[in-house]
Write a structure and sequence with these properties.
This protein is α/β, with parallel strands linked by helices and 282 residues long. It is 43% helix and 15% strand. It contains 11 helices and 10 strands.
Length: 282
């Protein structure tokens, strides 16, 4: 199946400049759920990327051990905590988010898996699942039926293998991903070089990005960017395509100064402004 190539001209058909009269409540409220002892940085990176992608409000839900870390590292984000100190055991929030991302740095403890299931049983909001959320789904594939239509999954190679099984060629992999998407009505962001976005029979191949993105936390930042666009009202497929393109663009811009080796995930958020400006300079 032939892929559509994601270039700037196509992105400009999706991207919407902000209304000069907009305010934070018009820009959406995103909820990011994840983190565990030693992995709170995943939510910090996702929160910062989400905020710097135009989201009006961001709330991070983390174990208690992450409270001060997120408050200090991302002062613009609001923070809710689990009752437990080191892991997520019960996802509770008292507002209605416009979009949700779950799984980054979350771990796979039994109590966390139960909390994830309870969350899925209740959630109806636009959803992105990443990292340990994907690994938990791979262990409990019956839970796929609980996902809202067009839920976005963002697996790297190993996470994808756990979800769909092993493949013998690139062609077989893509066929398996297409079938998985069709069977479950899911959008699959297949992270790699290049990243491809697959929804049912459609495939979109990204053209931005470079080896600088091969660094810890890059995927957490991507999750935050896509979730930001979901909260702002982009359709799930649009949010995925635009998010992947912008994410790669930050590395194309930032690595010119840092080089590939010295580019780290926090540089993604730092270069988002330049990435958006490059879109506005048509």
């Amino acid at each position: 199946m032939q892929a559509s190539i994601i270039k700037k001209d196509e992105i400009l058909k999706i991207y919407k400049s902000l209304n000069p009269e907009t305010h934070k409540n018009n820009q959406g409220h995103a909820l990011l759920i994840g983190g565990s002892y030693g992995k709170i940085g995943s939510i910090v990176l996702a929160s910062r990327a989400c905020l710097k992608s135009g989201c009006g409000l961001v709330t991070s839900f983390v174990p208690k051990c992450g409270y001060q870390i997120v408050q200090i590292s991302s002062p613009e984000a609001m923070v809710l905590t689990d009752k437990r100190n080191k892991k997520i055991t019960n996802v509770k929030f008292d507002f209605i988010p416009n979009s949700i991302a779950i799984g980054m740095g979350m771990g796979q403890k039994k109590a966390t898996q139960k909390a994830f299931l309870k969350f899925l049983e209740k959630n109806t909001k636009p959803l992105l699942i990443d990292a340990d959320g994907l690994n938990i789904l791979a262990k409990n594939k019956k839970w796929l039926s609980l996902l809202p239509p067009k839920t976005i999954l963002t697996p790297h190679k190993k996470e994808l293998e756990r979800l769909i099984g092993l493949w013998n060629s690139e062609e077989e992999k893509l066929e398996m991903v297409h079938n998985f998407s069709i069977e479950n009505d899911l959008i699959i962001v297949v992270k790699g070089a290049p990243t491809q976005i697959i929804y049912k029979e459609k495939c979109y191949k990204n053209t931005t990005g470079n080896p600088a993105l091969a660094t810890a936390g890059s995927g957490d930042s991507l999750a935050g960017i896509i979730t930001s666009f979901l909260a702002q009202g982009y359709k799930p497929l649009e949010a995925s395509i635009l998010g992947v393109y912008i994410h790669g663009l930050t590395a194309d811009i930032g690595a010119l100064l840092t080089g590939f080796e010295s580019f780290v995930a926090s540089d993604i958020a730092e270069n988002l402004g330049k990435a958006f400006l490059s879109l506005q300079n048509k």
